[in-house]
Batch of 2 targets.
Target 1
Amino acid sequence: MRVLKFGGTSVANADNIKLVLAIIAQKAEKEPLAVVVSALSKVTDLLQLAASKAAQNDESFRDIVLEIEKKHLDTLKQLIPVSEQSALLSHIKRIINHLETLLDGCFLLGELSPRTSDTILSFGELLSSFIIAEALKQKLKNTNYKDSRELIKTNAVFGKATVNFELSNALIQNYFENNDAQVVLLPGFIAATEDGITTTLGRGGSDYTAAIFAGALSVDELEIWTDVNGMYTANPKLVKQAQPIATISYQEAMELSHFGAKVLYPPTIQPVLQKNIPIWIKNTFEPQAEGTLISNSVAANGTPVKGISHIDNITLITLEGSGMIGVAGSSKRLFEVLSNEKINVIFITQASSEHSICIGIQNSDAETAEIAINKAFEIEIAQNKVEPCIVEKNLCIIALVGENMKNHQGLSGRMFSTLGKNNVNIRAIAQGASERNISVVINERDVKKALNTLHENFFEENTKQLNLFVMGVGNVGEKFMEQIHQQKKFLKENLKINLRVVAVSNSKKMYFDEEGMSLKDWPSLLVNGEVSNAEAFVSRVKELNLRNSIFVDITANEKVAQLYEHFLKQNVAVVTCNKIACSSAYANYQNLKNLSRKYNAPFLFETNVGAGLPIIDTVKNLIASGDKVHKIQAVLSGSLNFIFNNFNENNPFDEVVKEAGIQGFTEPDPKIDLSGVDVARKILILIRESGYQMEIEDIENLSFLPEECMNTTNNDDFFKSLVTHASHFQQLLKEANEKEARLKFVAQFENGKANVGLQCIAKDHPFYNLEGKDNIVLFYTDRYVDQPLLIKGAGAGAAVTASGIFADVIRIGNV
Ligand code: ADP
Ligand code: ASP
Ligand code: MG
């Protein structure tokens, strides 16, 4: 024999019930079955709502009754042939009338006792089991219906009654011994006292009903049919990557369900555990899926962590004070108070000094607990020996569960550091003596992030999901998106990095997709996105609170640079090719670096100097390994290099500048490049990264632009002035040619001083042969004395800049 239980979603409507009937019919061919069913999905919630409305004199409970009635009548009509409906529909209407009478009573009295509440809630299972039994009889004549209240007897603690197993087991065995039906259909969740008053087994209690029958009848197996493919490594509704667990021990399953894995009602294990009856969790909507087997055997070499679960709506109450130390029985008193108030304690930690004790309870119990505890310790509080208890609401418990955790060191460290890296603040920690469970209390707003990041760390071979928020999708930005699109598969397969772009924005529009947008269709999604707004963008990133969030700035905008601070404080990493922040006031640059350290949020800007060339990373490594930079000489402007490499007698200066712009080698405002400001910013950043404190004003700018060109206020005027001063530029060229030298715009730093300016570079200098838009940097350090460390290569262009940004993102992925 075997017991099957079908949950609320499995019996939500006629279509689903048909699937259930098919499963029952198939199984009944092989052996007799006891089938337990829940109420139709959401019906118990509706009953509870109707009851509380009625008790508050709110007439709208009648609408809810109508809704419940319609739901059941509709379901029945779709399952039973018309010719046989009438008597059954009348029966349902009678049940509904009875329900309405009870609710009327609550309405008139303005009251809802726990006893009445249980009777009202029982209607969900009474209705569902009646309909399903009738529908099943259409298929299997040899079906019996039995009201579980006649078989499961409990005490009179309404709401969550305790089962009298001795009596119930005897009644159940007796009934089944004298029954030869192929299938007995029974309502879950409901029971009765010995006097026959209806009780319930607690919300979600149909699983328990099924286990009680399974235990009493010593069946071969218990099957819990629900709406997911088994017990998962984490709640699949919150963690997309969660996987069904193939096999799990009773203890592990119990621990996971106690800590919130709703798929199994926690007391369910107990009646089957003693008899060693295996439980299968199966999916009604995918019956061929393997499901989860809960049994006595534990895989000896299984993964240390079996699953991660969580409980929301937790309040932490801390009681502390010198009066707690060494005073025998402080905790005993505390727990007594809570027990008297029937408050369930979910979580306990106590400092070894006994100076404080901290408990986790449900939010709904918080006020009662606070009042009761302060009252119980009022003398100590008056004497200042104990503080009034501290109450923190809206928290959540997250638990790692696994039988094999005790054989592995460092799991708790790994748990804490994974959460810490994502800026999830841990409020309290507890580890059971069985070492089957490590639980932490965190803020409710961090739950999804915490579950996902822990899941990633413990179950996904260290796959790391990176969530990108991209601002600026011009030349470079487009290339960046293209490169990600191209590399996504490779990164996932080879580096275990799962790159997702959650937001893109330009100056006009922004578009968010929490699940990561299509990397092909993003341009059209953006065009149809919302109007862009920096503040809204920042708060969306904060609200989404995704793990490993990275803000990618691909603009040259000062306002965007001002956002970094907000992101870093939210533990959102910043990757930027925008030089403004790092070349702004030293205090600001330093502040961003400090925030990055403090909030564990990387701040990377490799592309600020030399586009994709690994210049900043190299300086960082030199400094970190104890080297000291004394002198830097560099050609850092790909655009100026391109311009002076192409400028000659036949190619006028203004035309070359225009061409550089078209090819994307200059800033949108070319004057920033030609005036030397851009190069000054770059050398400043290198100087700062080398460990020196300097401001942009400290860098001498030996500009080669005539005053008039410098004073123009728009691009048109600027180009006109370049034409006007064509002879000035020709003169510069002539002087260089006469010396057999080439013009290069050089930045240098030595002895604490820095300057940028146009220089005639002689043939034997490493800068002489610098081609196209290349950059070159020479670092003279303690270790590189005679021969400088030289980095050379393409230093401008959309593709190389995009790949530099990409490299920074990957650096974060590899941390
Ligand atoms: P039923 O109505 O069939 O009793 P429940 O809603 O009580 O179903 O339980 C199934 C639900 O439990 C799933 O849909 C899922 O949202 C939730 N759940 C939470 N944690 C887990 C987990 N670790 N594995 C599977 N499901 C889980
Ligand atoms: N119908 C009850 C509830 O919703 C019992 C169950 O579904 O297991 O709590
Ligand atoms: Mg359930």
Target 2
Amino acid sequence: MLDQSQLPRHIAIIMDGNGRWARQQGKPRIMGHQAGVRSVQEVVKCARELEIKALTLYAFSTENWRRPGSEVENLMGLLQTYLESQLDKMLQNQVQLRTCGRIERLPPKVRRILEKTMAKTAANDGLILNLALSYGSRDELLRATRHLAREVAQGCLQPEEISEELFSAQLDSAGLPDPDLMIRTGGEARLSNFLLWQLSYSELYFTRVLWPDFGREDFLAAIADYQQRQRRFGRTGEQVNDREQA
Ligand code: FPP
């Protein structure tokens, strides 16, 4: 049973294991990604029902461009079909689409549908569905650093004025709370260049379940696990208990 008062505001997910899932079934890798889209739909629906504020999904990394051209094309096609088929549902359910990463590197057709979906859902005030596309955390950090360095060089900003808040505001995730919980499926325990700044204080949850097998029950189990943890943010356990009782 989940504690409704202790739900994570923002959940980030590394959706891993599509390829292995397909191999286990003796199917081509793309079938794993196709099955992964069903998990995306189920998790988005569940997050919306729970009234989670934001869900960030790592859908395509800067490193994923190194995959065979046919797989990249297939993934772009799946993304396009997903967006086209979900627009009405997003509007009905107050889901707002956002992205992080270099979407200018995506094929023009995909970019157009992303931009259209973002514009049409911009006023929705339910779940923020943030898709990380052509995303790499180091790339994002460098872009933010270059931007601030330019402002300093132009004399519009003093180095001492660069605070955590100002820096966060330069990231693609500006305006979103940092993730409280990060889930990675597929059995690996690494961050793979995902939200390195934003995950500083997040609870990390790793599961062996492959992404296409990850459904509502697994999502709820990850949140239940999160609710068992004590988040101390550098304080002692006793300090946290005293604050909670106050
Ligand atoms: C990792 O599995 C998964 C990806 C690189 C792509 C994730 C994409 C989807 C779930 C579908 C499209 C997304 C949306 C939002 C509609 P892998 O291929 O690395 O798996 P493996 O490690 O088992 O090979």
